[in-house]
């Protein structure tokens, strides 16, 4: 069993296109593979595979929200003052909890002199699993609007994927963009990371931040440059970064109009336009990942494992501690 995460510092750089190609290449090589969409806020891997129906849909009830029993409430306003998330407001002479903001911390309930506030479980989103038309399963999630805990939802997605795929599957995890809790959950327990970057300073800057997180988890990584021809002069900068950080360079993918066309058709690029320039590059890179990383994982791990873990201090942002606020 191996878990390979496809990640990028920012969205729209081609993670899902590479993830879908890699899953297809593993499937074509007769491997057991599970495609895992670890972006619960903006899931899209199922759209690339043309999955319209799910075999399993589970409500994931993890969070709490507060509710007011108005028959007990005397409108004192203490809960509004005490809520650390500013989730309670006076509306039409009545204190109302904004359920999109409420974190279920119950500070209001403890503070309420009338014991008028209780909490209820709330749905954090849906866990979903199904089969792609290409013979392997896909697992993902859809976060409920305004709910927190997307990282926990991604952990549940990975747990469900492992229930389905068992100990002898390869897991291709299409991570969310950035360095947030969903990405932390994607990296936790993984075996390696493929970073996707565009040849722009912004994309490299974001991928460098992401790579610090990857180093925190002591994971080896490789890098792929997408839309390489939009700014070829910047490619040497990316290669210097990769060399400095001991990241394997796997190759580049050209900009290709066939990529958005394949997304409109809801089919993987290499299935509908196998001769397009981006398809050929994606197939080459995916074959390299299969041969050089997946089939050769122990050696690759030894060669590209970070020298030491990066210290990681998560910043918890609340209305009263916004930096500079
Ligand atoms: S603290 Fe309790 S009694 Fe006071 S306004 Fe809030 S819910 Fe009502
Ligand atoms: S549970 Fe916490 S976040 Fe929700 S309204 Fe009460 S104090 Fe605010």
List keywords for this structure.
single chain, 325 residues, alpha/beta, Rossmann fold, Alpha-Beta Plaits, 2 domains, 9-stranded mixed sheet, two-stranded antiparallel ribbon, elongated, binds iron/sulfur cluster
Count of alpha and pi helical runs:
12
Give the structural class.
Answer: alpha/beta
- Shape call: elongated
Radius of gyration: 22 Å
Helix and strand element order:
EHEHEHEEHEEHEHEHEHEHHHH
Which second-level CATH architecture of the largest domain applies?
Answer: 3-Layer(aba) Sandwich
| Poorly predicted sequence stretches spanning 5 or more consecutive residues | none
How far is the first residue's CA from the last residue's CA?
46 Å
Q: What small-molecule ligands were found?
A: iron/sulfur cluster
pLDDT average, as an integer?
93
Please specify the SSE layout and strand pairing.
Elements: E1 2-7, H1 15-28, E2 33-38, H2 45-48, E3 56-68, H3 78-82, E4 88-91, E5 94-97, H4 107-111, E6 117-131, E7 137-143, H5 150-165, E8 170-175, H6 181-187, E9 192-197, H7 201-216, E10 221-225, H8 235-244, E11 248-252, H9 258-265, H10 269-272, H11 277-294, H12 297-304
Parallel strand pairs: 1-8, 1-9, 2-7, 2-8, 9-10, 10-11
Antiparallel strand pairs: 3-6, 4-5, 6-7
Helix pairs in contact: 1-11, 5-6
The structure holds iron/sulfur cluster (2 copies).
One iron/sulfur cluster is lined by residues 68, 73-79, 95, 112, 114, 116-117.
Architecture overview:
- With 325 residues, the protein is of the alpha/beta class.
- The protein has two domains: 223 residues, Rossmann fold (3-Layer(aba) Sandwich); 62 residues, Alpha-Beta Plaits.
- The chain is 35% helix and 24% strand.
- It is built from twelve helices and eleven strands.
- A nine-stranded mixed β-sheet has the order 3-6-7-2-8-1-9-10-11, sandwiched between helices. Strands 4-5 form a two-stranded antiparallel sheet.
- The longest helix has 18 residues.
- It is elongated, with a radius of gyration of 22 Å.
- The structure holds iron/sulfur cluster (SF4) (2 copies).
- The site of one iron/sulfur cluster has 13 residues, from helix 3.
């Amino acid at each position: 069993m191996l878990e390979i995460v496809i990640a990028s510092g920012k969205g729209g750089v081609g993670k899902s296109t590479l993830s879908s190609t890699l899953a297809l290449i593993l499937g074509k090589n007769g491997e057991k593979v599970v495609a895992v969409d670890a972006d619960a806020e903006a899931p899209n891997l199922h759209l690339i595979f043309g999955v319209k129906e799910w075999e399993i849909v589970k409500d994931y009830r993890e969070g709490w929200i507060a509710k007011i029993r108005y028959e007990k409430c005397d409108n004192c306003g203490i809960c509004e003052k005490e809520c650390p998330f500013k989730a309670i407001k006076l509306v039409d002479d009545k204190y109302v909890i904004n359920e999109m903001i409420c974190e279920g911390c119950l500070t209001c309930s403890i503070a309420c002199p009338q014991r008028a506030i209780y909490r209820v479980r709330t749905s954090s989103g849906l866990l979903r699993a199904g089969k792609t038309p290409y013979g392997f399963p896909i697992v993902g999630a859809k976060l409920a609007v305004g709910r927190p805990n997307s990282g926990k939802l991604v952990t549940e997605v990975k747990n469900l994927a492992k229930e389905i795929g068992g100990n002898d599957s390869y897991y291709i995890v299409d991570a969310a963009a950035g360095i947030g809790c969903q990405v932390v959950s994607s990296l936790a327990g993984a075996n390696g990371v493929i970073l996707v970057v565009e040849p722009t300073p912004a994309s490299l800057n974001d991928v460098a931040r992401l790579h610090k997180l990857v180093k925190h988890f002591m994971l080896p990584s490789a890098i792929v440059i997408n839309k390489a021809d939009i700014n070829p002069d910047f490619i040497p900068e990316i290669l210097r970064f990769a060399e400095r950080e001991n990241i394997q360079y796997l190759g580049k993918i050209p900009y290709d109009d066939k990529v958005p066309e394949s997304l409109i058709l809801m089919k993987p690029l290499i299935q509908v336009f196998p001769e397009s320039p981006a398809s050929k590059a994606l197939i080459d890179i995916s074959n390299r990942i299969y041969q050089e990383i997946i089939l050769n994982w122990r050696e690759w791990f030894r060669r590209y494992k970070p020298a030491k873990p990066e210290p990681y201090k998560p910043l918890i942002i609340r209305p009263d501690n916004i930096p500079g606020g």
